């Protein structure tokens, strides 16, 4: 859908049409009318960052959400507008919002499409899991509107399958599936980790999963830690993490003592709690108090395949147990949490191919930079070293890397592969600025993203964040990192 038209009210025949646009204004040079918020918007989120306030709205039509329709205003601490992003779509006033197709019928059609696609993808990659492809199951169906030249009323159906979570748009008048896409952010082949994982802590690339068996080589890799910010309920629930469900039931101990060996499924629950709590405490240390500042729900070992994913429709991170149990590898946990971070800061993030690639690249970067304090400098750019032992031959085991040297010349149209372009840029920024300064710039830049941002637009607002936080010299270093990847 195009969102490149100026906002205006016009008459087309007898029907009034509201046109939408998408633009990013230069810092301090927002349109003169930026203080006025257009009509038919629903406030969905207000976030505060180091530079100021970020207010997000959902476009509506006759009370229904408009798919991908958004409006955001970013102001500094004095109230001065830094940027306005207008992603509203045109919807004719004459559009009828009465559904003829029942929600149950739309859900069945959506699940059929999602299940068939998941089965095809499983056949294309038969080595990724030995588990039979399960049938797609429904989450929720809600009425919504698609804007643009082919405006229509649709059922917005979420389904869960072996691919993760999919969003399908089903025409509410004729029942046709208009669009179906995976909206969860997936990682294949997640693994075990302690701090961050056995391959790194033991510097041993020969370790293997052995079907979740306890092993002396893995026992010595375990590290006793303090679990901070628990709520005292006797469960792994706290300020930043909530183990909502898990295979075999959630861990409980009235003394808040959770000590298990890795063959016990509860070990992965402790891993998720500890590593996410560490991440959120680190984010707070950078000065950010509203970057997924919530108790993030986790579902542990509840998916049999070698895959984990963040579901933005339910705000839940699901960790799979195929191969190495994904939640044994902290870098898998941190990657998925990276998706939750971006979805929290930018509602609906990932609506374009390049935005999805940025999400995957950021998740990989977030994982490896979180490893830095505990990895003793062991091949830090290697992502998910332990998880990857289940599906890579070696001698090094990496799902992906953040130092591939890829540029935009290497774009192939797959979010994980293209994400290595973005992660390499972020890795280079970290090398140039140092971990703390780089992460402040990268997180601050995220606040200015549009949901359907491009590599170039995301790079430009990251440079803008660097300039506003640290001045022209640092902004020049960030620019050079993006130029090296041919993003700018």
Q: How would you summarize this macromolecular structure in one to three sentences?
A:
By secondary structure, the protein is an alpha+beta fold. The protein is 30% helix and 24% strand.
- Major beta sheet, strand line-up: 12-16-17-15-14
Helix-residue proportion = 25-40%
Instruction: Kindly report the average pLDDT value.
Output: 86
What is the CATH superfamily classification of the largest domain? Neutral Protease Domain 2
Order of helices and strands: EEEEEEEHEEEEEEHHEHEEEEHHEEHHHH
N→C terminal distance = 25 Å
Strand content: 15-25%
The shape, in one word, is: globular
Quick one: how many beta strands?
20
Which residues form runs of ≥5 with pLDDT under 50? 1-34, 125-134, 187-193
Helix/strand/pairing category: alpha+beta
Main beta sheet strand tally, sense and closure: 5 strands, mixed
What does this protein structure show overall?
By secondary structure, this protein is α+β, with helices and mostly antiparallel strands. It has three domains: 9-92, no CATH class; 103-183, Roll (Nuclear Transport Factor 2, Chain: A), CATH 3.10.450; 188-484, Neutral Protease Domain 2 (Neutral Protease, domain 2), CATH 1.10.390. It is built from ten helices and 20 strands. The chain has helices spanning 103-124, 198-202, 216-219, 266-285, 330-345, 353-371, 415-433, 435-446, 455-470, 472-484, and strands at 9-12, 15-18, 41-48, 52-61, 64-76, 81-87, 91-92, 137-146, 152-161, 164-171, 177-182, 185-188, 191-192, 241-246, 296-303, 307-311, 316-320, 327-328, 382-383, 400-401. The strands form six sheets. The protein has a five-stranded mixed β-sheet. β16 and β17 (316-320) form a beta hairpin. The longest helix has 22 residues, at 103-124. The radius of gyration is 23 Å and the shape is globular. It starts with 8 loop residues before the first strand and ends with a helix. Residues 1-34, 125-134 and 187-193 have low confidence and may be disordered.
């Amino acid at each position: 859908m195009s969102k490149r038209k100026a906002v205006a009210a016009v008459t087309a025949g007898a029907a009034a049409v509201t046109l939408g646009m998408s633009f990013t204004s230069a810092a301090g040079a927002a349109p003169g009318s930026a203080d006025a918020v257009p009509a038919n918007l629903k406030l969905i989120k207000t976030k505060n960052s180091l530079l100021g306030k970020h207010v997000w709205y959902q476009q509506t039509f006759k009370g229904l959400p408009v798919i991908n329709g958004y409006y955001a205003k970013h102001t500094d601490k004095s109230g001065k507008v830094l940027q306005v992003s207008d992603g509203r779509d045109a919807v004719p006033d004459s559009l009828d919002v009465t559904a003829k197709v029942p929600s149950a019928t739309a859900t069945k059609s959506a699940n059929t499409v999602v299940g068939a696609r998941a089965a095809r993808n499983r056949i294309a990659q038969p080595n990724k899991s030995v588990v039979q492809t399960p049938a797609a199951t429904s989450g929720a169906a809600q009425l919504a509107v698609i804007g643009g030249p082919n405006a229509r009323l649709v059922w917005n159906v979420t389904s869960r399958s072996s691919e993760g979570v999919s969003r399908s748009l089903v025409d509410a008048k004729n029942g046709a599936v208009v669009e179906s896409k995976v909206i969860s952010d997936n990682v294949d082949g997640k693994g075990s980790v302690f701090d961050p994982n056995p391959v790194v802590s033991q510097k041993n690339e020969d370790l293997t999963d052995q079907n979740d068996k306890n092993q002396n080589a893995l026992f010595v890799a375990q590290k006793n830690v303090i679990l901070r910010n628990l709520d005292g309920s006797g469960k792994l629930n706290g300020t930043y993490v909530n183990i909502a469900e898990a295979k075999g039931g959630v861990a409980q101990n009235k003394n808040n003592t959770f000590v298990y060996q890795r063959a016990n499924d509860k070990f992965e629950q402790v891993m998720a709690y500890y590593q996410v709590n560490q991440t959120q405490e680190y984010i707070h240390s950078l000065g950010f108090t509203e970057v997924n500042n919530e108790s993030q729900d986790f579902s542990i070992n509840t998916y049999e395949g070698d895959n984990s994913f963040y579901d933005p429709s339910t705000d839940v991170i699901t960790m799979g147990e195929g191969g190495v149990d994904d939640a044994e590898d902290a870098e898998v946990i941190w990657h998925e949490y990276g998706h939750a971070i971006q979805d929290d800061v930018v509602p609906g993030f990932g609506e374009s191919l390049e935005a999805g690639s940025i999400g995957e690249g950021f998740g990989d970067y977030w994982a490896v930079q979180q490893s830095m304090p505990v990895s003793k400098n062991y091949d830090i750019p290697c992502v998910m070293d332990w998880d990857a032992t289940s599906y890579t031959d070696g001698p090094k085991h990496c799902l992906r890397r953040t130092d591939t040297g890829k540029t935009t010349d290497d774009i192939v149209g797959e979010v994980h592969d293209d994400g290595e372009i973005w992660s390499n840029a972020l890795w280079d920024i970290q090398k140039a600025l140092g971990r703390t300064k780089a992460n402040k710039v990268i997180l601050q830049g995220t606040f200015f993203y549009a949901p359907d941002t491009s590599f170039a637009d995301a790079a430009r607002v990251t440079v803008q964040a660097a300039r506003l936080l640290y001045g022209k010299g640092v902004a020049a270093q960030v620019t050079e990192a993006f130029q090296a990847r041919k993003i700018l």
